[in-house]
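Glycosyl transferase family 2, pasting as requested.
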Amino acid sequence: MIQRFKDNNIKSFLSYLFFRFSQKIGNRIQRNLNFKGDYQFVDRIQGADKVMIIVAGYKPDLWEMTIPRMIRAVKDAKIDVCIVQPKANENSPKLIEIAEMNSWSYLCTEENKLSLAQNIAIDLHKDAKYIYKVDEDIFLPQGFVDSFMRYYSMSDDAGYDGGLYVPLLNVNGHTYIKLLEKLDLIDDYSEKIESPKSSCTNVKAHYDPEASYYLWKNILPFDETAEKILNSPTDISVCPHRFSIGAFMITREFWSVVGGFKQSPLEAVLGVEEDQICVDCSRHSKPIVVFNNILVGHFSFGPQTKFMTEKINELKAIDEDLVVGELNHK
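Structure tokens follow.
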């Protein structure tokens, strides 16, 4: 019996060693996927402690509305900006021009690997302690960066040690409920779309075109609504489930702890980094902190995009200031 006990202990110890060895090899392979790849980089880094990564390249029809808002949002902020494009395409020359006109950096990976492109860009901005990521279909309000940092400080003072920090997005399966509450539209939305519930994917705010249009037309004029919500009582909360990461801020410290955003071995695979970073928030006991006073527009999710694109002129007619400036304006 004593011998059996010893044998079991040896087997357990050997199993543990094998597990640790496999884990170490797996982590090394994943890190190579996350950070190793060929890329083109136009360096205009100024050494700021903040960087905004703008992921772009596939929705040029939106740029006249979204990019001038990004230009305005960073105008007076001490922040580096880098347009990140996973693999070059016919839109690359325009993105290179936009970056040059605004003294932004530009990075393009040889392969269509979203997380790899973002990780390389973040790694190159060595002095950036705070990393903002926004997709090309995101509409930013005026003063976004400064407001976000102010709420980050307030959340820290309130005891929130977050993994991700996110704004109040209109087309989002979690934050749309808080938006409806602030605009006193819960009953109206329930009648016209569905009874609101919080879910990353299993709600109409995530997939139904009529829901996305509702969540857009009711926040216009955009800047007026954003200012009203910003000036309302301070409202900070946490998201209890996976969050769609079209716009967020992450500290360099936490990004480093989790080994960067997870990259699939295959090209053009979406959602891997979103799933991973939300899991990592839970694993490291870091909440997804929501700044409910900072309204940010998200144009649409995939199933909603065709319908919403057809509605662009209607949105512009409702809000003549939806386009805030020239695309290449410094």
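Note for the archive: The mean pLDDT is 92.
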